Each structure stands twice: as C-alpha cells, then as structure tokens.
Amino acid sequence: MIDHRVRVHRSSERLERPDQLAWKIAAVASDPVEVLPEVAKMVVNRVIDNAGVAVASLRRAPVAAARDQAVRHPAPPGRAGSTVFGLAPQVRTSPEWAAWANGVAVRELDFHDTFLAAEYSHPGDNIPPIVAVAQHLDLGGRELIRGIVTGYEIQVALVRGICLHQHRIDHIAHLGPSAAAGLGTLIGLPTEVVYQAVAQALHTTTTTRQSRKGQISSWKAYAPAFAGKVAIEAVDRAMRGQGAPSPAYEGEDGFVAWLLDGPDARYVVSLPGPGEARRAILDTYTKEHSAEYQSQALIDLARRLRPRLGDLSRAKRITIHTSHHTHQVIGSGAGDPQKYSPTASRETLDHSIPYIVAVALQDGDWHHERSYAPQRAARPDTVELWQKIVTVEDEEWTRRYHATDPAEKAFGGRVVVELDDGETVVDEIALADAHPLGARPFGRPEYIAKFRRLAKGVISTEEQDRFLDVATRLPELAPDELGGLTLVPEWPLGTGETAGLF
C-alpha cells in the first residue's frame, strides 16, 4: 500500500493532476489487476446479501416509490437497460434509475454490510450502481466483479483515512467517488476519465448528516442510492469529455478546506500500488441483525444477558459503556430525545441503542419487522425499560474502536445492570457473533441462510434457487446471464403510495 498525504493547496501552488487524490483513486481504478479467488468469493457473498435484504423490503413505501420512479425511465433505444428488484427481468430501465431503486431496496432495512474506521460506511452500497451499468452495457461477470472490488477498495481507503461525521458530513461523500471509481474499472475507462468522474461525484454527493439525526426519515435509505445514481451520471458526463472541479479534495475552496478540517488539514489515504492485489472487501463485515452496525454486538450481548437477569422490571438502571462513535451516533450522547420516543420512526429506532437493547433483552431476539413495529415500540413495559438505559463514552472502548490491530479492534461495550436489590450484573462483548473474528463468523452457508430467511414468503423457492445459481456462478457469467441478478416475488407489487412528477 502507498500512503498518500492529502492537504489543502492554494490555487497559486498549481497542484498537478497526478498529485491529486482524485487522480490517485482513478489510477487504482484503471490498473488492470486480477482479482484474488478469495476476494471474488466474498463479492458473491455480498451480492447474495444485498439481494436478501432488498427483497425483504420490496413492499415498504420508500422502496415502492423509488421503484415506481425507476420504471418511468425506461432503457434508452439501442441499450440493454438494467433490471429492478421485484420486476420481471425483461423490464429494463435506464441504469441510473435502476441503481436508484435497487439502492433504496438494499439500504431500507439497514441490514447489509459495513465498515467502520475513521468514518462509517456500508460498502455494499457500491453494488447496485455497478450491477446496473454492467447489465446496461452487456458486460460479463468477470468485469462486474472487478468493478465491485474497486468500489470496495476505494471506499474502505477513504473511510480509513478521512473522517466526515466530525464535521457533520454524511458518509455518502465517500460513496460517490468509490462508486465512480468502481464504474471506471467495470467499463475499462482511462485514468483521465475516471479522475473527472471521481471529482464530479465527490462534489455532487457531499451532504450533511442531518439525514441521520433527529427524526430520521426515509431519506436515510435514499441517500446512498442518490450517491450511486449521481456516480453513474458523473461517469456519463466524464465519458463525454466534461470536467469537474479541480482539485476537488485539495483546492483552497474545496472539500477539505471548507467542509472538513480546514486549510491546515492533514490526511493520509492508503491505496494499493500498481499491480497490487485489492483485498479491502475482506476487511468488511455483514450484519446478522437489521440495525445500525454498532448495535450488532450489543444485541448479541443482550440475548446472552437475558437468562441471567430474569424479571427485567427489577432493573433500576442499565448503563452501556462504549465507544465515542456508539455513544454519539446511536446512544445518549446524540442528544436526540427522539431516541427515547415510542412514536419515533423506524429509521430513528434503528439508530437508538437504548431501544434496541431494551427489545433484545425482552425478546431474546431481533427481527427486521417485528422489532420495529409501532405497537412493539409503544409497549408499556418496553418504554419503561427503555427509559432506564443510557450510554456513556469509555476511553478504552473508543481506543479499541479506532485500533488497527484486528485483535484489538472492537465495536461493542460493557453493560452494567443495577437491580432493585442492590445487585449488579456486568458483562461485555467486543465483536458481534457474525463478525469474521466473532463467535459465529459468517461464511457462504450463513449468507445463503440469511438470504433464504429474508426471501421466505416473498420469493418462491424455485426463484430463490435460480438466483443463487446465477449469483454463485458470478465469476463466469456471460453478458446475457447478468440480467438474472434480480428477483421477482410471488405476488404482484404495488406502486408508490402517491403520484409524483414522472
């Protein structure tokens, strides 16, 4: 890996293109490196994972609205177009709108993969736009895998090197450039074209974190889909010879200078050198539970604690000692009263670790629909327990969150339960059970089991089998087979609840 140092440059310094981060990202994308077998296998796992969480959300209103928008933008003449989850394979839309609809479906339940470092991310959000363009251009499985691998590589590198949330910038600002880079690899574009697309995607996908703050709305699911859609549009413009703000990252009126650490900022982004294998996808991890990743380990801990606690009405106070990130984003440190409101939206409850731990303690389980049902959130004994749960930042858990040593890195915490008789029950967990270093790491059988569990009652067994056959053969798929990377439910799908412009 090569450490690239990023700082702000005055216009008079004339930072040359090869010295700009966007160019260095583009150079990785245009380097024809072969994919390692273990990396290709993980790409297949994540394609299966995305499909499972997408079909489980097909009837939800945000997904229906995005799908309805997509079908109103059919494939242009002379192009194959792209498939949309829930619709027959022969229904083809323009690729940016397929990426939009499929991106919302994948993101809606907050149930696919994650990578956490200096910033947060869901690298699987790269997959919908890259699949859409591969189908649209009649490319094969080999090209698709290479594009996805680049998307993961760039996003992980940016997430490791540049913190966005400290400045209340949403993490899709890393997704736009990574998706554009992945598309560059997929299509085989020259460095110059990818450079322009990456810079355009950064410039147009920088938004605030208010989409994940306060009363969180359906835009939480739409935001990464928007980044994928915009990345496709940026690549299209760049292919037509249209340019981007430059230097996008380092300019004196650019991204770093005004939206991040300012004119004196210093960042290090580590990227593969020429010919170096891309392995970043292997450092990412999926979810066993449909909730914010930093709650995964704590759900597992709550399930483990439940038999020891017995009557939960005896709990006087439950304190979760955890990292700065968990405390500030999904815990008490966020200062959001909505995180304790029984009328909060699903998206808000997904970002409330007090709620999540309360339900996991009571039910000994977590379900992507039942655990968020309005009647579940309003249950009096749940509300009572929920209000007793607080988070506090613990310096040691924060240190472990940021550790680079896999044996040290942790996303969990220590839970202290104070009972009404003065007894205290304490337990802790570092990693979710499904994490690669957890108690029950996910492998191909677990990805398939999760897919079938989510598809049950929505997708017939025959359709599930067909999709899994296509997905597991991804490295060898011919262009005319790539359209099989979609799923059609057993029952007809409705459209959006209200009419729009299209």
From TrEMBL:
Region (Disordered): 323-345
Domain of life: Bacteria
One Pfam family here: MmgE_PrpD_N
Species per Swiss-Prot/TrEMBL record: Candidatus Frankia alpina
Sections of the chain in a coiled coil: none
Enzymatic reactions: (2S,3S)-2-methylcitrate = 2-methyl-cis-aconitate + H2O
Molecular function GO terms recorded: 2-methylcitrate dehydratase activity
Name of the protein in its database record: 2-methylcitrate dehydratase
Annotated EC: 4.2.1.79
Top-level enzyme category: lyase
Family, per entry: Belongs to the PrpD family.
SUPFAM superfamilies: 2-methylcitrate dehydratase PrpD (SSF103378)
